[in-house]
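#struct-help
A.M.: can someone run this one for me? Single chain, 267 residues.
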Amino acid sequence: MQLTAERPEHSTPGPTDRAREDKLLFARYLATRDPAARDALIERFLPLARQLARRYQRAEEPLDDLIQVASLGLVKAIDRFDADREVAFSSYAVPTILGEIKRHFRDRTWSVRVPRDLQELSLKVDRTVVSMSKELQRSPTVSELAEKLEATEEQILEAMEASGAYRATSLSAPRGGEDQGETLADTVGTEEHGYDVAENRATLDRLLLTVTPREREVLRLRFEEDLTQAEIGERIGVSQMQVSRLIRQSVARLRAAARTDEPADQA
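D.P.: on it. Structure tokens below:
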């Protein structure tokens, strides 16, 4: 049985003829699951997939990749389509293909995950900037974009900032776009241990208020000037045993103050 409609040679099929041929192809595929019929349907609606892929094309994403994603959505739409429903296949296929494209952008192309609604708004902003730039012969303002997309200026700014999360830049990339010269890694700050030293010093100065001036001097001579206990005793005029006792007492007091984090009354 012949499933394609007869038409005069060299004539162009009209919408009615095309719809009839679509139904015949789907009837054949659904009845037999013939791979050839499936391939014919894919070939027939592939221009639709390409058109939708171009609609979502952006500089950072190769068009060939988007066409592959859209084609996958087309295949899914063909396999899931119910020909008994009174709806044109294209009406069913478009949301399915767009869903596959958006899922691709959401799950596989963003270097940093951002909320889905922000991703979609970011894509809309990018496309609108291109179209409005051609129309206005200049870059559109944030307020113009907000009016066009029926969004707030804050949402537009957030979407534009989110675009920076789409592609990560290698730290080895040159800053000026030249092959040689300073890279992005050269501008990244290193770990600064001086802050820890300053914080520890401020903490120690506060804790030293819990000991007597004599004890502070003994500690300074021992831990800053690195004198022995005998040398400290000669310096302040006491025995080595007294110096040892002063060090033990003052260190114990410092530890107690550090645990409570509240300076005790000076003895």
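A.M.: thanks! The CA atoms of residues 45 and 81 lie 13 Å apart.
D.P.: also worth noting: The longest helix spans residues 35-55.
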